[in-house]
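User: Structure tokens for both sequences below?

Assistant:
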Amino acid sequence: MVRQIFSLENKKIIVTGAGSGIGRSTAIIASKLGAAIIALDINTTALEETRTLMCGDNHCFKTLDLTNSIEVEKVVKAICDENIIDGLVHCAGISSRKPLNMLKREGFNKVMNINFYSFVDLVRLFSKRGRMREGGKIVVMSSISSVRGYKAKTEYCVSKAAVDAFVRCMALELAPRKICINSVMASEVLTPMAQKAKEMNLSDNNFETPLGPSKPEEVASLIVFLLSDATSTITGTALRIDGGACI
């Protein structure tokens, strides 16, 4: 029998974007390690499918539009009125593809609202005293596009660079409460969104990835490690899982 080196037993974990891709894989793996998951996604049907793949029955599923800050505040309050949170994972995100002559503020706002501003809201709301346990863990999906350029992917790249900068700042602010916050910097991941981009010849991978793309489960496993008690001093860091793309 393989010894389990860490678990999430008795931990309450928020996962956004839990309806598909990395968010779904994170919810599934965390549930197998004993966590009670509060799964958030804008797609109710997708959440229901995630529910069928998870272990245990102590989970909560809420449909939420992360661009609606008033709704986000209400849902977070409702969650925290009944739970003290141990971890927050922000996997919800969107991408875009536009050349320079099509870039406008409206386009940046649309991508930033999901990828960055909603994460800021969630960290601000969930990290309030009495809502997140001391020693809590926060993880957000970033991308190597925060440090590598992609042709016609400016809006997305900027949003992920903002995420990583925010993580570094929050690591210092949250350190007195022993709350760790990190990002996971992925390259190509075999999510439904990435598969669709490939089918449309819109793949983001414009440079070599020596080991090839990652599976959502691999990325989720790294996220789950960061949520666990296996580490208490990794914070303010962007951990790469990129198949060697940034070597």
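Moving on to the next sequence.
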Amino acid sequence: MTPLVKVPAAGSLVWEGSCGSGSLAAAVAQSLDAPDGPFVRSYAQPAGVVEAAVVRRDGEAASAWIGGPVSLDPPTVVQL
């Protein structure tokens, strides 16, 4: 998956290297018809793989989390 973030107030679209919230949302959506218990998926993205997990209980998402290796780029200052 290649995340594309839209910010309507700024009128911008930005391609991201990875997206934790999008990966988690995808896992929750894909687990809707899954039986109770753990549902785990790995999402390959340009900056690496994000693993997302959902635990379903009584047909509902009871808990969820993401994981995988993380690295941070140095901060960038943008002057307008």
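User: Anything stand out in the second?

Assistant: The beta strands are 4-7, 12-15, 37-45, 48-57, 60-67.
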